[in-house]
Amino acid sequence: MVVHAVVVAAGKGERMGAALPKPFLPLAGVPLFVHTLRSLTRSTLLQKIVLVIAAEYEPLCRQLLEQHGPLRLPMLLVHGGQERQDSVRLGLAALDPDCDIVVIHDAARPFIEAEIIDASIKSAAEHGGALVAVPARDTIKRVNPQGGVVETVPRHDLWLAQTPQTFRVALIREAHARAHTQGITVTDDVALLEWAGGTVAIVPGDGRNFKLTTPEDVALAEALLKMGTARLHP
Ligand code: C5P
Fold first, then answer.
1. Cβ proximity of 9 and 3 under 8 Å
2. 234 inside domain
3. Which terminus of the chain is more solvent-facing, meaning fewer CB atoms within 10 Å of its CB: N or C?
């Protein structure tokens, strides 16, 4: 079974309010995307990584990889697009023709554990698609545009989607191509398989695999590392 990863790092990360895009910001002295790549290389099933970056940051990216490398896996850099969905589609297009399973992961989730990646790979091989997710813990409200609470959404069957989102390559490529042709926009890859009628199984994740979005998230990540609650790898 040939298993590759597509890691999307081509976002601008405007919510961080920093000069550099989010994946290049340091976490404990190492760029966020390097931590994420190192975490992925701990999977024993992954054989290659396609890293999707914004074209203008390729020189910086290569320099940082040189400085913090080498990684245990071969890597290919490709240029991303306007939206995350475009970046994933361009990453999928760069996979080797013999690739069976693709692990799609956000560069902004450095704390992913190898056991969870491998569970998602096995689940995708069996079901077609696998979603790493955690059960919703808070009570969820639907709110109207005026800011008034409309209703409480029962949460017993609600899960919060993370990445990796892992698929048989042919299924997710086909779903992305069809969505692109028909102008369908979604916020994650599993949504495309739902839309295209594929099966996606849940792989229970871990709250520590959160997406670093704001400066507070970076502070939280640093604190978890200091307390030993979350791990990163050299
Ligand atoms: O913006 P958001 O936090 O949802 O982005 C999730 C991931 O998708 C990030 O790792 C970001 O770099 C990536 N992304 C991308 N191309 C875009 C937008 C986001 O690769 N055009």
1. no
2. no
3. C
Q: What is the pLDDT of residues 200-223, one digit of tens each?
A: 999 999 999 999 998 899 999 999
- 161 CA from centroid of ligand 1 (Å): 15
* Residue 185, in any domain of the structure: yes
Q: Which residue has the tokens 């990445």?
A: 163
Range of the domain at 214: 3-227
> Which atom of ligand 1 has the smallest separation from the CA of 33?
10
232 domain-assigned: no
* Ligand 1 mean position, distance from CA 9 (Å): 6
**Residue 18: what pLDDT?**
75
Average pLDDT, the chain: 95
145 domain residue, yes or no: yes
Digit-coded pLDDT (tens) for 13-28: 677 677 888 899 999 9
**How many domains are there within the chain?**
1
What is the whole-number distance in angstroms between the Cα of residue 148 and the centre of ligand 1? 31
Alpha helices in the chain (DSSP H): 32-40, 58-68, 84-93, 114-127, 169-182, 189-196, 215-227
Instruction: Identify how many contiguous H helices and E strands the chain contains and give both numbers.
Output: 7, 11
CATH number of residue 79's parent domain = 3.90.550.10
pTM: 0.96
Beta strands 75-79 and 140-143, pairing class: unpaired
Q: Which atom of ligand 1 has the smallest separation from the CA of 88?
A: 20
Residue whose Cα lies nearest atom 21 of ligand 1: it is: 83
Mutational pocket test of ligand 1: of 40, 87, 189, the residue with most ligand atoms within 8 Å of the beta carbon = 87
- Give the residue, by CA position, lying nearest to ligand 1 atom 14: 11
